[in-house]
Amino acid sequence: MYQTNILEYLEASAKSYPERVAFSDGEESLTFEQLHDRAMRIGSFLLSNEYTGECVAVFAKKSPDAIAAFLGVIYAGCYYVALDIDMGERRISEIIERVRPRAMIFDRESRADAAKIGAGVKKYHIDVAKAHEIDYDALLSVRERQVDVDPIYVVFTSGSSGEAKGVVASHASVIDYTETLCEALGFDGDTRFANQSPLYFDAPLKEIMPTLKKGACTYFVPRECFLFPIKLCEFLEKHSINTLCWVSSALAILSGSGALEKCKPQRLNKICFGSELMPVREYEKWRRAYPDATFVNLYGPTEATGMSCYWIAGRELDEGEGIPIGKPFRNTEILLISGRRRAADGECGEIYIRGRSVTLGYFGEREMTAGAFVQNPLSDSYNDIVYRTGDVGRYNKRGELVFVSRCDRQIKRRGKKVSLDEIEAAAERCEGVERAAAVFDEQRQKIVLYYTARETGEGLAARLSVRLLRHALPDEYIRLEVMPRTANGKKDRVALDRISRGERIYE
Amino acid sequence: MNELVKILSSMHPEIDFSVHHDLLDEGILDSIDIVTLVGEIDEVYGIQVPLEEITPENFSSVEAIYQMIERLRGQ
To answer: Which residues on chain B are in Cβ contact (under 8 Å) with A228?
Structure first.
């Protein structure tokens, strides 16, 4: 029978590997059997309170119980929106306002904050929900009427512009993603993940779903470890972690601090990165530390479930070459569109994504959804909805897809197109520069390069002039003590825009 | 010690560091703060904090950070 529900992953693993630890935060752990039991209890609890076919908020710290709550919500035939104290009260209220859930599950840590928000939302302690008796008949009747285009979660992304959009994904898109991701990256029952990303993004699906499908294991890295590189190495070592799927900035915490030289975790053999450009210098440090490991660059928007393209490092990079994003996962097609046609070989085009992994669109935003989830520009004979990423890519001479820029990160200067992302990548290849972010000040028509560096960064302009065309050279260089980051660890461009307008950040 | 409090206050003006002692348990410091702090300690005290010293124990409170500075200064 072909799979139509993600819970089938959990049920198969609970049957095959009941005693195996599925999720752990280093203190509390849940085996597959315990997770299955707990999820069914939470699902039964929600059904007994007559919640089904609707959004349920899960306000919990990153923990095995949070995963049980997500799965429990799905058992009830509902879909979850994850909330976390780290998001800040304003963001949480905004999400509640948008989704208007009738019910919320909270835990001990979020109890006080949960009480303050969402007037009119019924709030239930997870300890009550997970103690509820399992109602097999009720769960079965939900399962019988579920279809694979039913939603399972809403993930709010901030996008480059900073406004929140709730992407809704279905069983079908998550199953497609899970199957093709596991197959391309070779995850199996021995895979031990260390999760970095918050649970309210799509990024943790890379760990959660293969864990459920393969009977693998995911450790949630305590937030504090990312403050202390040695502590982080110790955590990875202690739990025999062999696989990382982290944002580039998080990997750079280890390579940039020198921790890889002093105390590198011994068992790592698969290192995946993505969500932002990986600075080639940090990548090379990782490669030197782990010459036998598999390195994978991932690319993909939340709107296409998670990751859409991957490149497995199998060769040295050419001088000045960025890390390619390679090719799409099976059952995903990339359309590179220039005007209304396919971009020619080597020509830049906008990346469109086609396939089962394309999600259901933005929650409660029909118009915005119609603007991004569009009819395939190459065909109009039948419904063929593709996701328009707003990213510019091209194929290199090896036929590998290369990410060039965000469409809105491509500016025109002196009649020529300039990609702010390319400026950043060039600056990050300069010796001594750690991170760089290029911002275009539209009012003054100036390119400002923010960077962090170990030394003063003197002569950076001269060094950049070797790597970039004249019209692409920044007008101003501003050295920062630290690069502002978003909750997911990416460069915070909204904060940089605020700096360039003269505002103070870090209030 | 006063200089240290001054550095911390400039990073987090909203926090009264004479009252808040638990910098980590209360979630006051994040990974960016640690990098900044290490840079400031170098600038103000002329002390480069080695990787091995960047530990939760040494950054758990204002007192702990100060003791680490004193210890490194003596070396």
So the answer is: 34, 54-56, 59
